[in-house]
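Entry for tetrahydrodeoxyuridine complex. Fields follow.
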Amino acid sequence: MKHLDITLKVDVLAYGELTPEEQHLTAMAREATERSYAPYSKFCVGAAIELDNGEVVSGANQENVAYPSGTCAERSACFYAHARYPEARFRRIAIAARGTDGEFVADPVAPCGACRQALLEYEVLAGAPVEVLLCGADKVYRLPSVASTLPLAFTEF
Ligand code: THU
């Protein structure tokens, strides 16, 4: 029997250690939490995507009284980004969240499984890793790619 060892490399950084581009994108993700519509969970998530055309597109979770009809911040952002700029390719994404107390969560939140799969599609289209920045109150988790968040992903399309 053989084994596959799949490891996930996560850099843990203070905001001051990020590059200027990363700092800008994390600020946009944090700002996007203000545009969350989360009257049911009161958990406000924001996502910001840097595109290779220089644009940054952001999104926020949008809930609905018919609960499954809502969508996460990450899918709100990636679907809007590709609908708005279909020729552009994703470079990096930042995700931030504020809890029910209105404060940014101490430990970064990671995208749900459905969002990982949705984001992966755009990483495949880009043909290069899309960096992932998960924003906590005072620290950021930096992951090298969307694929690293979804081991053994389905990518046969
Ligand atoms: N949510 C996101 O926006 N992104 C995720 O990756 C996980 C969860 C939203 C969905 C819902 O509006 C709220 O957070 C609570 O689950």
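NOTE: The chain has a mean pLDDT of 97.
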